[in-house]
Amino acid sequence: MKPTDSHIHDDDAPDAQRISSKRLMGKVAVITGGARGIGATTAQVFAENGANVVIADLLDELGVSLADSIGGRYIHCDVTKEADVEAAVQLALAWKGQLDIIFNNAGIAGPGGSITKIDMDQVKHIVSVNVNGILHGIKHAARAMMEGRKGGSIICTSSSAAIMGGLGGHAYSLSKEAILGLMKSTACELGMHGIRVNCISPHGVPSEMLVDAYRKFLGKKDMSAKEVGKIVGERGSLLQGRCGSTEDVAQAALFLASDDSGFITGHNLVIDGGYTSASTTMSFIYQ
Q1: What are the boundaries of each domain within the chain?
Q2: Which fold is adopted by the domain 24-205+245-274?
Q3: Per the UniProt record, which residue ranges are transmembrane (predicted)?
Q4: Is 172 a catalytic residue?
């Protein structure tokens, strides 16, 4: 019996079929904060799906190594400096002549502590990275996409802390909720140019940034990513025992970057195992 397409494994499929399954074939993407964590995993996933990826980060050694491994490009980029972000976009244009996707992912966790003792200089810094950095990315990506007249996908990293209190420090929560408002307003303007603007809000993903934050807040300098994931899986997810991963977020970014989400804009895709939608403390009533 002749096998159907559903029975053909990727290794056995003809080249044309493998190519057609790559959801970003020929597209050009810029990823800020792309040298490690969520950004690095997303860079790998985008490249595996046919994208040409520019990694923009401050971590030069990691960024160069990753870019070389995926056939991409790397540029040193401080997202608080508008000229740096513009240069990352211009690198994509000089390299491939177009920009189809930007993943505004660079961000920092910021301080915890009481609102009564908050340091306004620290607040200004976290806003300059988490909000202004994304504003710079949207601005210059939109210009390039509008000139290219092919539309595009702009994706911004927010957080579950933007939609539920108690999940981050005050300055961090402020910055991440501001991103949601910026996403919605720019989606309104850029939609007429066929440019989609969306957010991804991860929750409890034990990336380097979250692990560092847990170590600081809990006072455990040797805390591992596995330990952080265990805490999130037990206390911060409806999917008991499971925390999110950088791969989970990367796959969400792939969906929003691809034509599969062609009618989705102004949306916040929350990757949280259902935590911000319901309370786990009352789950005993269903037993």
Answers
A1: 24-205+245-274
A2: Rossmann fold (3.40.50)
A3: none
A4: yes
Q: What is the pLDDT of residues 171-196, one digit of tens each?
A: 999 999 999 999 999 999 999 999 99
Which residues, other chains included, contact 1 with Cβ-Cβ below 8 Å and sequence gap of 6+? none
Total length of the chain: 287
Assign 46 to helix, strand or coil.
helix
Distance CA 133, CA 166 (A): 24
Closest listed residue to residue 57, CA positions, set 91, 105, 18: 105
What secondary structure letter does DSSP report for 195? E
Instruction: Say which residues have a Cβ less than 8 Å from residue 217's Cβ, sequence separation at least 6.
Output: 112
> Choosing from 172, 214, 275, 286, which is the catalytic residue?
172
Tokens of 10: 């990727």
| Among 15-24, 50-59, 134-143, 164-173, the least confident range | 15-24
User: Cα torsion at 80, 84, 85, 91 (round to 10°)?
Assistant: -170
Q: Note the pTM of the prediction, 2 decimals.
A: 0.88
Could you tell me which residues come within 8 angstroms of residue 32 by beta carbon, excluding any fewer than 6 positions away?
39, 56, 57, 77, 79, 85, 88, 102, 103, 104, 105, 106, 133, 137
Evaluated on CA atoms 257, 263, 267, 271, the torsion sign reads negative
